[in-house]
């Protein structure tokens, strides 16, 4: 290990109390939906990085209006054209904490310290601790450690922090295509995102692929108002019955998608891909721990990971409009809406999947011969993302991770969707040979962190080591010639 990295790591250890305070201050700002609170969070990030020598500003949205600002700019303020340039993305908005009564480490918007029951790890608890405030402030922690260790940052950084990720990144795609966005990405060599998680809790990972998502809703309408089932049951077509019939044609209890031809474009499985799963640190117990049950469809880790990463899935999420309270209510709902989504994989496009689903539901609706009315809607969507894990950018991230954790990271895909990855990939553009510039997903948190749920947390070790990994990654990038090829 170089003497600079040793000094940097030592300084990170010395600054741990400061890092805890920084995370606590970020968690206190309830940047959920209130634009003023989001602006407060954005201003805090801008000020902290600028105080360390950055040149960041708030980008205000004119169209659409009323959005929280982007935090954009460069570090250091004095640009060194001889160094490589890395684009860093993160988000400062968080999910609501309406489930605060379910938190065993309340209140949600105050940092608390404790032991996580599921794996006995010492953690910081609080909304945003792992998604995504913890990773975002880890970048600031890293900058502070470099500065106080009197070491020049080995690369140039361009920051892009948004406040709408949890609501679909409204406005971000348009910004990236704008003149200001193009300027931010100009001459960038590679990109990095820390907005996902380790596959488990013991081995770090680097992520090179994400499934896409298409979110649908079906609405069935019938009577003009709620009816008494004793008076009208058996005499009218009931919307709930029709909706359940439609939903039952989508997927079976084994997870098999029933829509014809939907999986037609899934890439064939090769022996090389099968072999790539063998070294991944993942067991069925990891799944049982993460789900709190043994309700797995498969008993094999490889089959489970394939179902999560390389095959599409369909999940039914809920029904709106029907009575769901504890009392015995015997009414017939006049209108109900079913919600479901499909996680897509490479070569499956949002347009094609939406057409297939619509055609399938239209056929199934006709079979019901119902006098109710039915409508179909695509609520939200994001395409898949995948890059090459053998790129020098990944090799730099792998060496950095190994240096800090003493383990070579697993190369993983993810079952979840981060649509913004495609936007950042588009902003990075292509290299001199016309190939997409490399974007690596370098997670800080773990699979048990409970993002979006009660008792969201991040292991203290991961939070501290997160700054070390990010700093080591930049060091390795600076010494990796292939990053800019």
From TrEMBL:
One of its GO terms (biological process) is proteolysis. It comes from the Eukaryota. SUPFAM superfamilies: Zn-dependent exopeptidases. Residues 208-367 form the Peptidase M20 dimerisation domain. GO terms for molecular function: metal ion binding; peptidase activity. PROSITE patterns: ARGE_DAPE_CPG2_2. Keywords: Hydrolase, Metal-binding, Protease. InterPro entries: ArgE/DapE_CS, Cyt/Met_Dipeptidase, Peptidase_M20, Peptidase_M20_dimer. Belongs to the peptidase M20A family. This is Peptidase M20 dimerisation domain-containing protein. It comes from Aspergillus avenaceus.
């Amino acid at each position: 290990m170089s003497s600079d990295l040793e000094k940097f790591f030592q300084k990170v250890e010395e600054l741990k109390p400061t890092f805890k305070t920084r995370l606590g201050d970020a968690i206190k700002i309830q940047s959920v939906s209130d634009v003023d609170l989001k602006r407060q969070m954005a201003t805090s990030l801008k000020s902290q990085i600028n105080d360390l020598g950055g040149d960041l500003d708030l980008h205000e949205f004119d169209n659409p209006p009323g959005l929280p600002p982007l935090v954009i700019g460069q570090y250091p303020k004095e640009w060194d054209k001889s160094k490589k340039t890395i684009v860093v993305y993160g988000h400062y908005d968080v999910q609501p904490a309406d489930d605060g009564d379910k938190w065993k480490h309340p209140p949600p918007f105050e940092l608390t310290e404790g032991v996580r029951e599921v794996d006995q790890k010492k953690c910081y608890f609080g909304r945003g601790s792992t998604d995504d405030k913890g990773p975002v402030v880890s970048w600031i922690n890293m900058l502070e450690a470099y500065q106080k260790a009197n070491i020049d940052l080995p690369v140039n950084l361009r920051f892009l922090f948004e406040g709408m990720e949890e609501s679909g990144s409204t406005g971000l795609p348009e910004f990236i295509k704008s003149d200001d966005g193009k300027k931010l990405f100009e001459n960038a060599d590679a990109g990095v995102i820390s907005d996902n998680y380790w596959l488990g809790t013991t081995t770090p990972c680097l992520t090179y692929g994400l499934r896409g998502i298409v979110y649908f809703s079906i609405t069935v309408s019938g009577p003009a108002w709620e009816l008494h089932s004793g008076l009208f049951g058996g005499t009218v077509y009931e919307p709930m019955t029709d909706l359940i019939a439609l939903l039952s044609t989508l997927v079976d209890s084994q997870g098999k998608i029933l829509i014809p031809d939907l999986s037609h474009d899934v890439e064939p499985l090769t022996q090389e891909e099968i072999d790539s799963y063998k070294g991944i640190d993942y067991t069925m117990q990891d799944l049982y721990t993460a789900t709190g049950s043994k309700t797995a469809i498969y008993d094999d880790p490889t089959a489970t990971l394939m179902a999560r990463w390389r095959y599409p899935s369909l999940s039914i999420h809920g029904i709106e409009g029907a009575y769901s309270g504890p009392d015995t209510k015997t009414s017939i709902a006049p209108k109900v809406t079913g919600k479901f989504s499909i996680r897509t994989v490479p070569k499956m496009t949002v347009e094609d999947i939406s057409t297939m689903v619509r055609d399938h539901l239209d056929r199934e609706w006709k079979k019901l011969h119902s006098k109710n009315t039915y409508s179909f809607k695509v609520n939200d969507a994001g395409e898949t993302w995948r890059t090459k894990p053998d790129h020098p950018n990944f090799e730099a991230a792998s060496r950095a991770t190994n240096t800090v954790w003493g383990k070579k990271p697993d190369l993983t895909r993810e079952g979840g969707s981060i649509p913004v990855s495609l936007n950042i990939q588009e902003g990075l553009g292509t290299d001199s040979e016309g190939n997409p510039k490399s974007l690596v997903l370098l997670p800080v948190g773990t699979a048990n962190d409970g993002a979006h749920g009660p008792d969201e947390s991040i292991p203290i070790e991961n939070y501290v080591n997160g700054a070390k990994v990010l700093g080591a990654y930049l060091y390795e990038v600076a010494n990796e010639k292939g990053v800019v090829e």
